[in-house]
Design goal:
- The structure holds two protein chains of two kinds.
- Chain A is an all-alpha fold.
- Chain A has one domain (about 40-330).
- Helices cover about 75% and strands about 0% of the residues of chain A.
- The radius of gyration of chain A is 22 Å and the shape is globular.
- Chain B is of the alpha/beta class.
- Chain B has two domains: about 1-110, no CATH class; about 115-265, no CATH class.
- Chain B has nine helices and ten strands.
- A five-stranded mixed beta barrel of chain B has the order 5-6-7-9-8. A two-stranded antiparallel ribbon of chain B has the order 1-2.
- Chain B is elongated.
- Classes of the chains: A mainly alpha, B alpha/beta.
Chain lengths: ~325, ~270
Amino acid sequence: MIRRIEQNLAEITGFIILVSVFYLVVVNERWTVQTILLPESLLAFNTIFLSILIEAIPFVLIGVFIAGLIQVFVTEEHIKKLIPKNRIMAVGMSCMLGALFPACECGIVPIVRKLVYKGVPIFAGVGFLLTGPLINPIVIASTYMAFGQDLRIALIRMGLGLLIALVIAVSISFLFKGNQLKKTATLLEPEQSTKRFPLLLRIRAMLIHSVDEFFDVAKYLIIGAMLAALVQTYVSTNYLIGLGEGMMFSTAIMMGLAYLLSLCSEADAFIGASFRHVFPETSILGFLIYGPMLDLKNTIMMLAVFKLRFVLVLMIIITISVFGVLTFVHPWI
Amino acid sequence: MYLQTQQAVKAIVLLLFSGFIFMLHHTGEITKFINPQYTAFSQIASVIFLLLFFIQVPRIFISREQAEDHDYCTILGCNHEMGDKRKVSLKTGVVYSIILLPLVTGLLFPYKELGAAEAVKRGICYTPIQKHSSHSEVLETSNKTLDEMVRSPVLILDNFNFLDYVNNIITYPELFNEKPIELEGFILMDDTLSHHPLLGRFLVTHCVADAHVTGLLLSNDDENLRNINGWVKVNGQIKRLETNGIEIPIIQVKEWKQIDQPEAPYIYP
């Protein structure tokens, strides 16, 4: 009898947890803490914090699933075969792949980490990381809608974004060798082919990896969402706008704003559009291009995956490239 | 038979996430966080969490044979908590409290809709945006609402037409001069922008984090209107106001009354 219980212990525990959470859901009664205890701004912070999380989680889940898939089904030989030997070709290909792949800037970090771990060169990984969230059908559609159904801004955003991503990826290829990954416990497993295991076990392994990956990523996502919500609740955008005028300055301000607000690239066009009466179009483009490439939320996530020095250099290169290219093309916009 | 505490905590967290998101949808409170158009994404997320929970459950306990056999480690990941399983390190504790934080605040704290205080901190848009669109199709559709607006004797704004109507009024103030109007919103005073109170609504495009305010200015003959902290229903007439060479519409308030915040305070474009 005891042996039988022991055998089914996992199922029994799972069942008990399931029933208790189900009960919570059905009873539907929240033990809400009295409002008097908490200041209004803290409640607003909490709402924004949760909304960023709820918005990001589906995309992060897609990201960890794909990371799990790569971990179990993609081997180093596949990667070697697919990535072109030529550096420029490799960068071009990764940027194109990123452009076809709809992702959000937090969901893509675990995917890139797994790809680089499996032997994709770091510069190709960066190309994918930058274009994935910036260039995809959903972002084009939302930018088109946000700017009064005007394709011009959407096209400039995509075109310039692709150009800047290429510049960044090429400069990374000259600066860094090696995979630049942090050595973490999950990545220290002996690399062996998983082909000898049956398919069902491999699918199970993929899902288990997804679970671990989720917990790996979730803590950084939560910290990032918390910081972004703090900025949104306690920093006034009007104050930032009041800091100064002039094209260079306003572009810098919009890029800073994009970094701090950490909006999802699918929705940031609407916020960007609301600044059109204050800033020139170049500055708005700074907001639209810089935001998906780099923000508070994904910096924290990248710091968890890559070496500190690499992340810092990457941040500087992204900032300089976006700013430089925009200043250069400003007369034509 | 060994109990793996960390795996057990992970299973509980996964199920709580699934339950939390499910609960938000079940009670309809999800609309306080995201645009209802995008709810399918988080519903799928809730189901995926449940699936991951079922994947996770068998890992809570491992048998003695499994604990000693490292054959499957290459594929299933080698995280046997064998060495110091009794001791939970500080780092692990911090990590799990971070992950549990949104669940705790989400389940315990009341949710607050954004209002005037938050609106001042965000950008407010009430000046016309120049359109350099030459899309004939677009012009036709916007003309349709425009025609409808010009022909109707009184403009009544609701959740569905608020954005279109306000945009049209701001873009073509000359068409709506002297037009009676009726709308609801919260009162917002921002002296850095204008000395007139603004009647605004929050637009939530994707999630509350990207909410921003749109609205129309009110004439400030009535001093009481300025000091209202909450929602009002306004009846008035559209007039034109010239500031700094730009013509902006303003509502000459005829009558107004204070109302409760509506069930759906946000507008989802």
